[in-house]
Amino acid sequence: MGMLLALGNTARYLEDSKAQEIDGRNLMASAKPYSTGYTGFAFVPYPNRDSTPFSTKYATPEASTVVRGTLRYDSFPEFIRVLVGIDFLS
Fold this sequence. Notes:
- By secondary structure, the protein is α+β, with helices and mostly antiparallel strands.
- Helices cover 21% and strands 26% of the residues.
- The chain contains three helices and five strands.
- The strands form two sheets. A three-stranded antiparallel beta sheet has the order 3-4-5, with no helix packed on it.
- A hairpin with a 2-residue loop joins strand 1 and strand 2.
- It is globular and about 40 Å long.
């Protein structure tokens, strides 16, 4: 259950050198398809927690986009959005 509850956490990351933030209730809506080029391997990535310190931690100051995230199988975000919509994860 802990993994499901973590889906309600706000995500922070850097995109084009600008801090971005996604509220936990909108996290799954931000997930976009990611193509591996292989049939049957359809994933959706989404950011998790605070990725903003990682540029410093890994000594990559030249990185303009830094996102620590998770890959899930396609349709996972839709399933989670239903659970959020019925307040199952509250």
